[in-house]
Design a protein that fits this description.
This protein has one domain. The chain contains five helices and no strands.
């Protein structure tokens, strides 16, 4: 990967990275927010994200960031996984299988807890 793509593309890549970090933290922890709008957003966004993971070979946010950074393998599995890059920041070098299990597990957990918060707050009358 090369970050020698010019200041505008690098700034855009950093913005996509920050958005991706936000998504990565919202999905498992959005249910902790005090607003029912956040829980409703999670109820719709998380399934859409999971469908994207099932139907696409790689995450679109990772691909956009890597293309902006000039990564020669952007858009392929060789571009690397975002969850693995996040883990590496704290010294956790995980396998592809571990990253996938972590991503799917935390996503389903976040979805279930958003639904639970909506139910307990009376927004879903089951």
């Amino acid at each position: 990967m090369t970050d020698d793509v010019g200041p505008i593309r690098l700034a855009l890549a950093k913005a996509v990275y920050i958005l991706h970090v936000g998504v990565t933290f919202f999905v498992p922890w959005g249910w902790l927010l005090p607003w029912s709008e956040a829980w409703w957003f999670g109820m719709f966004f998380i399934p859409i994200m999971l469908i994207h993971w099932k139907t696409a070979d790689v995450c679109i946010l990772s691909t956009i960031e890597m293309k902006l950074r000039g990564h020669p393998k952007a858009g392929t599995r060789e571009q690397g996984g975002f969850i693995q890059r996040m883990g590496a920041l704290v010294g956790w070098h995980m396998s592809d299988e571990t990253a996938a299990n972590l991503g799917w597990g935390l996503s389903y957990m976040g979805l279930a807890l958003c639904a639970l918060r909506l139910y307990l707050d009376g927004h879903i009358p089951w």
